[in-house]
Amino acid sequence: DLMSLKRMMEKLGVPKTHLEMKKMISEVTGGVSDTISYRDFVNMMLGKRSAVLKLVMMFEGKANESSPKPVGPPPERDIASLP
């Protein structure tokens, strides 16, 4: 949301006006939404081809957002199988 993004930008040391924030969000979302995702925010801040972006996404575990998540209960484990 707009105010959360505004606070985040202020914490990063890049304060923006309300209108600048609206413009940034509309550029990222194409004017479709008033909110941006974490990945879109990082893309906006670092640039799409940034090596830092790839490292951040890998570290955050968000590089493969489309990977399927396991379904069902976890397998049973006993004490011997723990590290």
TrEMBL record:
Species the sequence originates in: Ailuropoda melanoleuca
Lineage: Eukaryota, Metazoa, Chordata, Craniata, Vertebrata
Annotated stretches, region: Disordered: 62-83
Descriptive protein name: Allograft inflammatory factor 1-like EF-hand domain-containing protein
Any GO molecular function: actin filament binding
GO biological process entries: actin filament bundle assembly; ruffle assembly
Keywords annotated in UniProt: Calcium, Metal-binding, Repeat
Cellular component GO terms, alphabetical: actin filament; ruffle membrane
Domain spans labelled Allograft inflammatory factor 1-like EF-hand: 1-83
Organism domain of life: Eukaryota
Gene3D superfamilies xref list: EF-hand (1.10.238.10)
